[in-house]
């Protein structure tokens, strides 16, 4: 039995596929299959079986593979402890984040981080919450930066969710709209308005919940382009629901063309921005350092 064989079976268990495990580990599929077969022969246990959902552990191997997970994580911790002792943080990591982070916290955090650790390769991708959760589940990324109305549902057996910021949903209206003179807005005051919507999973869930409780609103259009959305709001063609994170510095708001107004009288306006990661994937020292700097940036309020 070798460390490599344990790493192979852990990766197969994580990905549910021998071919995907081989790709992630940069070895051939034939080599990983032979290594697993040799380990099965040594242990006298069949480790995996094929099913409709992919390659999955057998009932006899579940505990063995859980132990293999623990050993592999301890080995990673051992290696990183050696790095810490030599005052170096090494290794690459990748993550995905919703657009709100790229427009606010991430630029300054990333700029500072790469100056301090130029040897670390960081891969960032902009995606929506639903896509990010799937990537975390499939162990394709080290962590995700998302928004959720119900963070307690994420902090379950499969995921860990660390709240970084709390925000509110606001209503964005044209300065020429009669609504612009309101200090707050309630759902009954909005149901007859025309809406433009952002095509994101989190805000879409908010809008669906709003429609279910108060009735459907007329939708002018749906877009992934926030500039197009805000242009139409500024022109008075529609209103717009969005988070408050980073909106106060947007040029339409700064210029006064769009007015953000708090939404009250609705039980789903608190939005939680946070880090989501898999309990089954080791959180590297490089990733931990990045999140530490991200939290420091948030604490400063400089975004």
TrEMBL record:
Record-level GO cellular component terms: cytosol
Pfam families, sorted: HTH_1 (PF00126), LysR_substrate (PF03466)
Entry keywords, A to Z: DNA-binding, Transcription, Transcription regulation
Keyword Transcription regulation (UniProt): yes
Lineage top rank: taxon: Bacteria
Domain HTH lysR-type: 1-58
The keyword Transferase appears for this protein: no
An MF annotation (GO) of this entry: DNA-binding transcription factor activity
Family per record: Belongs to the LysR transcriptional regulatory family.
Protein's UniProt name: DNA-binding transcriptional LysR family regulator
Organism: Neobacillus bataviensis
